[in-house]
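I would like you to sit down with the record closing this message with an eye to the fold:
=====
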Amino acid sequence: MTSPSAPSNTVFFDFVCPYAWRGLELAQVLRKAGEQGFKLRHFSLVQGNHADNAGQQEPAWWLTDQPGNEGNSFQQSSLLAFLAAGAAARQGEEMHWAFTLALFRAVHEDKKSLDEAAIMEAANTADLDMDQFAADRADEAALRTSLRTDLAEAAEIGIFGTPTFILPGGEAAYYRFENLTRELDTARQWWKLYGEVLNSGAGIATVKRAKNRPAKKT
């Protein structure tokens, strides 16, 4: 069990990514068992893959500098979701997790659009204080500043995909989950495997299956 003072793992995610959803579901299983602490942080795949940032040491194009009603659908929906998550986070860590998982499930499990309707549904599902949520969402400049901090840290680390987990010792890697689990023993096994691969003396950097040999379904 982790104590309240134990250092937390960090997970960077983007709401548009189904792999990030499955990664956070695994993290939630471990959190609820009291075995691991995970801190939520945001990484924008739109920003990471933007043409203006190709080959750049630091991003030249920032999602936080963009108007909410411009760009493609991924840009608009991810910015909307990030800012809403930032507002939810002002109600505490548990509310942040509750909102984040509710929105992920609405989009990737229930196949709803990542839009204002899904955000409001997730806020209600998470049992947020809706008056406070509305007031905090109106503080958009501060929410963009907070998001910018996450994106800058992600760039400094060199994150390129989600979910990327960072261990308390600083080790970090993208972990692509093809399968979903909400079962504790399975979550423990998969998390243990992540740590073993990340810290292996073999220096494993990439494992990618051949396209005609998909992952075994569980």
Remarks:
- Helices lie at 18-32, 45-48, 73-89, 93-109, 116-125, 130-138, 140-157, 184-198.
- The mean pLDDT is 92.
- Residues 140-157 form the longest helix (18 residues).
